[in-house]
Amino acid sequence: LVALLEADKEGFLRSETSLMQVSGRAARNINGKVIFYAERVTRSMQLVIDECDRRREIQAEYNREHDITPSTIYKSVEEVMISTSVADARQPVQVAEAVPAYDLSTLDQHDLSFTLDLLRREMKKAAEALQFEDAARLRDEIIRLGVRPGDRVLEIGTGSGYQAAVLAVIVKEVYTIEIIPSLAESAAKKLKELGYDNVFVMAGDGFFGWPEHAPFDAIIVTAAAERIPVRLIEQMAKGGRLIMPVGPVETSQRLTLVTKRMDGRLIYQVREGVRFVPMTGRIQEK
């Protein structure tokens, strides 16, 4: 059973695409059911309902033609964990209780990827409350930024604190901002319990950055917007890098890497298409 409250509150999380993705969670159970709780049927809701009906008719006809009896798909916890882990994850390895200090400046991209996978497993073992669905994406962001041991990094969008914890093992200091106070408090508590003393968490609007601690060698923005906030550009150190998904928040964006040269000039590199949750706060004001 999948129940979606306030399904008629249209927006990014109640768009046709989001409603379809949520509804798909019930697709593998023969008795799966999706309930939209709403006071009215929105356009997005109706499109999803119509599309589900269309697909159901096609599947039913296919089943009849091929004498197929639908059944629920069962998976063990281990199978689910494997299917949702980083795509290139290797076999489990033994890690020390304390995370070792890695000299990442000497690693090529393949070895760096492998090292970060080890860090991901250690975090997964130590912090049972954190989420790892986005591990591969976050790891790739870190690789693109080319963070180094002596860097000071600003992260916009703390979330559970997972990415901040990975960065904390690699760089000198991590400053992370979360706009939802409860998430900021929870992440700060978890990071402190795990001994990440070089991570500093603030509840606030990432649009303004953290000028008191600028400039930053690297800035990671984990939410999408149609433009990069000027204040974040201003808080980049010379030679610094910023990475952010840029584009329409209703559809997809392009991962954009900005490098500030030593003479202050900016170099923009537009990378692959991605889809992130929208950045909230001041950035939404026109």
From TrEMBL:
GO terms for molecular function: ATP binding; ATP hydrolysis activity; DNA binding; protein-L-isoaspartate (D-aspartate) O-methyltransferase activity. Residues 113-148 form the UVR domain. GO terms for cellular component: excinuclease repair complex. Pfam families: PCMT, UvrB. GO terms for biological process: nucleotide-excision repair. CDD domains: AdoMet_MTases. Belongs to the methyltransferase superfamily. L-isoaspartyl/D-aspartyl protein methyltransferase family. PANTHER family: UVRABC SYSTEM PROTEIN B (PTHR24029:SF0). This is UVR domain-containing protein. It comes from marine sediment metagenome.
